[in-house]
Write a structure and sequence with these properties.
By secondary structure, the chain is of the alpha+beta class. It has two domains: 13-49; 59-152, no CATH class. Helix content is 30%, strand content 25%. Strands 1, 2, 3, 4 and 5 form a five-stranded antiparallel β-sheet that branches. A hairpin with a 2-residue loop joins strand 3 and strand 4.
C-alpha cells in the first residue's frame, strides 16, 4: 500500500465493527445504569455514595483511630492497606462491633507492627468519631471528638 510503512497495520472492517459494537454496549450499559440510578450496576452507573450533597445545616462525621505509641507520641493511624493493613471503610462498617468489643482493635495494632517493624509500636488505640457542624453551609467551630472505644494493646 502506498504511504503505509511495512510496520503499520490498518484496522479492517471487522476490527472497526468490533470496536463500534463494544463502544455501543458500553454506552448502553452506562445509560441503563444512569436511568436506573442504582449502585447495583456499578461500574456501569452512578456510585451514589460519592454523588450526594450535604445540606447547609448538617453534621458531618468522620471516623478515625488514634494511637499512643511506645515512643510517647500520639498519631492518627493510617487506615489503608499500606498503613495498618485495614481500610477505613472496614472500620466504619464495623464501628458497632468495635464499640461492643474493643479487642477488635488489636488487629489494627498487629497489622501496623507487622508492616512497619522499624516504627514505634502502638500501645493504646482509640476509635474516635469527629463531628463537624455546618451552619448555613459553613463550618461552625472545630470538630467535636467522641471516643467510641479504647483498647490497651497486647504485646
Amino acid at each position: 500500500m502506498a504511504g503505509v510503512a511495512d510496520s503499520d497495520v490498518r484496522l479492517g472492517r471487522v476490527g472497526k465493527g468490533v470496536r463500534l459494537a463494544v463502544a455501543l454496549v458500553g454506552i448502553g450499559l452506562l445509560v441503563n445504569g444512569s436511568v436506573r440510578a442504582s449502585d447495583d450496576v456499578w461500574p456501569f452507573g452512578p456510585m451514589s455514595q460519592y454523588a450526594q450533597t450535604v445540606p447547609d445545616d448538617a453534621s458531618i462525621t468522620y471516623t478515625r483511630i488514634s494511637a499512643q505509641t511506645d515512643a510517647g507520641t500520639t498519631v492518627d493511624v493510617p487506615l489503608n492497606i499500606e498503613g495498618a493493613g485495614v481500610a477505613r471503610a472496614e472500620i466504619e462498617a464495623r464501628t458497632g462491633e468495635i464499640v461492643a468489643n474493643p479487642s477488635l482493635l488489636q488487629t489494627v495494632a498487629d497489622g501496623w507492627a507487622k508492616k512497619h517493624p522499624d516504627k514505634p509500636k502502638y500501645v493504646k488505640l482509640e476509635l474516635i468519631r469527629d463531628t463537624t457542624q455546618l451552619v448555613e453551609g459553613r463550618v461552625d467551630g472545630p470538630p467535636k471528638a467522641e471516643v467510641l472505644a479504647t483498647w490497651q494493646v497486647r504485646r
